[in-house]
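Field log, afternoon session.

UNIT: design team B
ACTIVITY: writing a sequence onto a fixed backbone
BACKBONE:
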C-alpha cells in the first residue's frame, strides 16, 4: 500500500456519497407521504400559537355543518345540536336561539373565522355538548340567593312602590318552596330583610351543588327591558360590559373551577326565561360579580326584568308573575340536574 501522503485522492468521492444520501432520504420521504399511516389531520399551528380555533374545527367538535351567511364575515352552523351564528369582529352570537356573548371577538384570517379556545371550551362546548356538566354528578342541594337586603335596597320603582330587596326575597322564597316540592334541599343566603355582604353570600352557599342569585334590573333608559343571565367571566377574558380584560380579570378565582357547568346552567336558565316569560332576550353574559367569584359550585346571577320599565315593573308587581318566575327557575334547576346526572339526550 501507498503511504497516506502518496495516495491519490478523489475530491468528488465524498461529495457523491453526500448526494446519494440526500437522494435516498428524499425517496424515503416521498414513500412515507404516500403511506396511509401518516395521513392524519394536520396540526393547526394557528390554534397552538394564538389560542384560536378555526370555524370548521369548531363545527366538527359541536357536531354541526357550517355555511356562509355573508361570505367571509358571517357564518352559520347547523345540526342536530342546534344552530350557532357568529360574525367577524363581534362578540355577540346566537346559540340555539339564545343571544350569547363571547369573551373575545370572532376574528377572520385566510377566509376562515376563528373563535378563542376559551370560548370554545368554557361556553360553546358546554352549551352544545354539555361538556363539564354532563355526568357531573347528582344535584341535590341548591343555594338560593335573594339579592340585596337590609340597608341595601337595590333598585326601586317609586311610582309603583317596588323595592328590589323585597321582590328578590319574595321570589327566593317561592323558588325555595318550588324546589322543595321537587325533592331538593335548599340553602337560603337570607330569609329576612337582612344585609349580607357580597363576599359572605358564597360562604353561606357552602355545601350546595348549584347556586342561583335573584335580581331585578334598572337603567336610566325607561324603555330598556328584558331578561339576562350572568355567569362568571373566565380568567383572562373581559366581562360583557367591557372591551378589554382588566388586571382583575386575569386572575383565576375559585368560581372559575365551574366555568363550563355554569355556562351550561346559565344557558338553560336564559332559555327558560325567554320561553316562559316572553321577555326580550338580553343574553347570556359574563361578569366578575362578587357573588360569583368565590362560589363552591356552578352558579348564575339572574336579572329577570327591569323595574325601571313601567310595563315590566307592573308585571313584576303581580304575585302571579313572581310565582311563574320561581317555577320557571325551579324547572331550569331540574333540567340542569338531569343533564348533570344523565347527560344530553
Amino acid at each position: 500500500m501507498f503511504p497516506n501522503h502518496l495516495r491519490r485522492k478523489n475530491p468528488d468521492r465524498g461529495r457523491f456519497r453526500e448526494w446519494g444520501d440526500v437522494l435516498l432520504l428524499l425517496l424515503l420521504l416521498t414513500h412515507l407521504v404516500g403511506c396511509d399511516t401518516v395521513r392524519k389531520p394536520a396540526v393547526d399551528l394557528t390554534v397552538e400559537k394564538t389560542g384560536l380555533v378555526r370555524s370548521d374545527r369548531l363545527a366538527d367538535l359541536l357536531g354541526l355543518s357550517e355555511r356562509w351567511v355573508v361570505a367571509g364575515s358571517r357564518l352559520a352552523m347547523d345540526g342536530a345540536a342546534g344552530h350557532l351564528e357568529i360574525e367577524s369582529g363581534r362578540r355577540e352570537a346566537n346559540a340555539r336561539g339564545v343571544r350569547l356573548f363571547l369573551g373575545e371577538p370572532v376574528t377572520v384570517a385566510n377566509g376562515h373565522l376563528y373563535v378563542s379556545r376559551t370560548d370554545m371550551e368554557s361556553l360553546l362546548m358546554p352549551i352544545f355538548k354539555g361538556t363539564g356538566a354532563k355526568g357531573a354528578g347528582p344535584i341535590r342541594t341548591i343555594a338560593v340567593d335573594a339579592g340585596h337586603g337590609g340597608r341595601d335596597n337595590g333598585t326601586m320603582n317609586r311610582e309603583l312602590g317596588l323595592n328590589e330587596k323585597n321582590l328578590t326575597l319574595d321570589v327566593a322564597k317561592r323558588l325555595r318552596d318550588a324546589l322543595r316540592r321537587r325533592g331538593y334541599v335548599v340553602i337560603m343566603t337570607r330569609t329576612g330583610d337582612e344585609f349580607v355582604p357580597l363576599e359572605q353570600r358564597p360562604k353561606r352557599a357552602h355545601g350546595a351543588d348549584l347556586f342561583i342569585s335573584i335580581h331585578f334590573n334598572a337603567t336610566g333608559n325607561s324603555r330598556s327591558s328584558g331578561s339576562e343571565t350572568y355567569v362568571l367571566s373566565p380568567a383572562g377574558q373581559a366581562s360583557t360590559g367591557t372591551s378589554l380584560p382588566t388586571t382583575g380579570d386575569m386572575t383565576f378565582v375559585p368560581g372559575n373551577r365551574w366555568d363550563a357547568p355554569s355556562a351550561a346552567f346559565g344557558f338553560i336558565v336564559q332559555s327558560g326565561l325567554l320561553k316562559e316569560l316572553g321577555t326580550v332576550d338580553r343574553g347570556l353574559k359574563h361578569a366578575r360579580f362578587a357573588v360569583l367569584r368565590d362560589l363552591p359550585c356552578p352558579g348564575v346571577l339572574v336579572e329577570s326584568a327591569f323595574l325601571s320599565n313601567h310595563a315590566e315593573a307592573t308585571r313584576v308587581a303581580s304575585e302571579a308573575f313572581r310565582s311563574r318566575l320561581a317555577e320557571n327557575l325551579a324547572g331550569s334547576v331540574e333540567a340542569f340536574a338531569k343533564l348533570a346526572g344523565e347527560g344530553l339526550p
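LOG NOTE: Residues 1-20, 22-46 have pLDDT under 50 and may be disordered.
NEXT ACTIVITY: expression trials, pending approval
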